[in-house]
Design a protein that fits this description.
mainly alpha; 18 helices; Growth Hormone, Chain: A; 430 residues
């Protein structure tokens, strides 16, 4: 069954080594962005100042703005030089190094924390675009959703491993009376170490199939290639429309990912240990959601799959806003897991399906641009609302839920088969 889902010439070992990168890098988003460092930043680094949540979202937004500018360029350069694998190695090293450096951040070290978050998240986001660009080379076109689901599911297992190791250390440290300013830095070293070790198989077994093109392989050539894509965007009308849709619904998702721990602690009164335990369970349900939806996404249809997940997200926002006790919030958080895994996997597969085969790095760079724009819009919306409202996190989550409603309306306008025909026609003209 696995072999039938792969493109000709692709070995099972290779596709699993590709999926293992999702395992490796998920610890960064789970521990640093979602569960541990975000709450530490607000409570310890910024001292629970009224602007603390906004400062956190602003730091993330700056890194995403940089990725928006460089992502399509890196993708075009990778395609023209056949350099996805080399660039992926460079971004991995960068993320690991700067994640480890977060261990140096203590209470009051606001400038250092912001600088390291911007740098580590920039390298993470750039690598996320590059690893996704391998998907159309590895999967059969009728199994993009399934193979993407394998990666996302394994990614959430990786998040579980990093977060579980961090929880074990936090539990041990708290039992000894160690404060957060001393145990949080160690979790950054744990996360960086797991990322480095788990990514090794990717660089040992994943092949670079793209060959340098006859076009110029320098920066100017990459810009020319990107400008050509933007100038001919009308050929890919449905991909363009989907990327606009991504900006909206991912804005809601990115707000949830970046602010989950802050919401849990500030609005629901969770402790650090309770927050980590909650997100551990969410990673389990996210892995199940990514795998389960990946199994039938290609048969159900990319659009219907995304529509189902967006309806789920709207329900999540309403329940989180209404939750007064921890029990309902736990139920809501597990629904977040199912929706998170399925929507992320489905979106990546959709981009792969609608992209011209010879320009996957470039078009996944555009996908990254859309996701990073949403990563600015969603968290900043949440941060501004919480700041202006005097810390009303419930109002903030309710307002960011509007982005899911807009995304649901936009995805209904897509004609996926028309978009696929346009991508294949472009490949024949290349």
């Amino acid at each position: 069954m696995v072999t039938a889902s792969l493109a000709p010439g692709v070995k099972r070992r290779e596709v699993w080594s590709w999926a293992l990168y999702d395992f490796a890098n998920s610890g960064y988003t789970t521990v640093v962005i979602t569960a541990v460092f975000s709450a530490y930043f607000v409570s310890e680094v910024a001292g629970k100042a009224p602007w603390a949540t906004f400062a956190w979202t602003a730091a993330l937004s700056l890194s995403y703005a940089i990725i928006m500018f460089t992502g399509p360029l890196l993708g075009a350069y990778a395609d023209s030089r056949g350099a996805k694998r080399r660039l992926l190695l460079a971004t991995t090293i960068g993320c690991v190094v700067f994640t480890a450096a977060l261990a140096l951040v203590g209470p009051g070290d606001l400038a250092l924390a912001v600088a390291l978050i911007v740098l580590s998240n920039f390298f993470f986001g750039s690598g996320e675009n590059l690893i996704a660009a391998f998907l159309p080379e590895l999967a059969h076109e009728d199994a993009l959703g399934k193979v993407s689901g394998w990666g996302w599911a394994l990614g959430y297992v990786g998040g579980l491993v990093s977060l579980g190791a961090s929880l074990a250390y936090v539990t041990h440290a708290q039992a000894r009376g160690v404060p957060a300013r001393d145990f949080v830095p160690v979790t950054m070293l744990i996360t960086a170490g797991i990322f480095a070790l788990a990514s090794l198989p990717t660089f040992l077994f994943l092949r670079e199939r793209a060959r340098p093109s006859s076009r110029s392989g320098n920066t100017a050539g990459a810009w020319a290639r990107l400008k050509d894509t933007l100038a001919h965007a009308r050929r890919y009308k449905d991909l363009e429309r989907f990327l606009i849709c991504v900006v909206f619904y991912q804005a809601g998702i990115q707000a949830v990912v970046a602010l989950a721990a802050i919401y849990a602690e500030q609005a629901m009164g969770f402790t650090t240990r309770e927050t980590i335990s909650l997100i551990l369970v969410v990673n389990v349900t996210a892995a199940i959601g990514a795998w389960a939806f990946g199994q039938f996404q290609d048969r159900l249809g990319h659009v219907r799959t995304i529509q189902l997940t967006l309806i789920g997200w709207i329900l999540v926002v309403v329940l989180a806003w209404a939750a007064e006790g921890k029990t309902l919030f736990w139920i809501t958080a597990n629904l977040v897991g199912v929706c998170l895994g399925s929507s992320q996997s489905a979106g990546r597969a959709m981009v792969g399906y609608l992209s011209p085969p010879e320009r996957t790095g470039e078009f996944f760079g555009l996908w990254g641009l859309a996701v990073k724009l949403s990563s600015i819009v969603g968290p900043i919306t949440y941060g501004l609302v919480s700041w202006i409202s005097g810390g009303d996190h419930r109002l903030a989550i309710l307002i960011t839920g509007v982005y899911f409603v807009i995304g649901l309306a936009l995805v209904a306008t897509l004609d996926v088969q028309r978009g696929r025909r346009a991508a294949l026609a472009a490949a024949q003209l290349a």
